[in-house]
Fold this sequence. Notes:
Number of strands of chain A: 11
Distance between the termini of chain A: 41 Å
Number of helices of chain A: 0
Low-confidence stretches of chain A: none
Order of helices and strands of chain A: EEEEEEEEEEE
Strand content of chain A: over 45%
Mean pLDDT of chain A: 93
Largest interface: A-B, 25 and 27 residues
Oligomer: heterodimer
Largest sheet of chain A: 6 strands, mixed
Helix content of chain A: under 10%
Shape of chain B: globular
Number of strands of chain B: 11
Order of helices and strands of chain B: EEEEEEEEEEE
Mean pLDDT of chain B: 94
Strand content of chain B: over 45%
Distance between the termini of chain B: 36 Å
Amino acid sequence: EDQVTQSPEALRLQEGESSSLNCSYTVSGLRGLFWYRQDPGKGPEFLFTLYSAGEEKEKERLKATLTKKESFLHITAPKPEDSATYLCAVQKGSGGSYIPTFGRGTSLIVHP
Amino acid sequence: DTGVSQNPRHKITKRGQNVTFRCDPISEHNRLYWYRQTLGQGPEFLTYFQNEAQLEKSRLLSDRFSAERPKGSFSTLEIQRTEQGDSAMYLCASSAWEEPGEQYFGPGTRLTVT
């Protein structure tokens, strides 16, 4: 069974204090790994897709990386507006429905 | 296009009543997904449409749940005989044919069953 484990469950940072969130996965034949941001009471917002080990994607203060067993979301010099829950999801390579399996997320709070 | 929209945003109902939610996806997206999310959990897959065809349903989806996408555009999710355990956020997402993993979510419908 596909599994996605995110750590830590919650993270508190001071503004400007860089850190990383982890997403470890077990899936037979990874098609893609996705990162989403979710603000309270809203739907998830797509951030990145990673397809193969060694791939990296960047957007503003966020950088996502992928290995064969895990992905990291690096947050450089975070600001309070980066506070949100960050969700990781994996998608199998086989089959045509492309149903992603989501992790439980990491709740990030950035204090000013 | 303004993105994925869902209505209503909030629904409070009494146990045993039926409820229906609507999702309008991004117009050029032919893939549509319904998810359920409870506090502290990631979205949990319920069902998937490719155009008007419902191609996959979660094993967790009981027969009280039904979904339609009659013309391959908007979709509805109906829950019959609601139970307190149905209380959750119901999310709809759509994606383009070329990038099925890049899903765009609506704001969700929060259901409270009393």
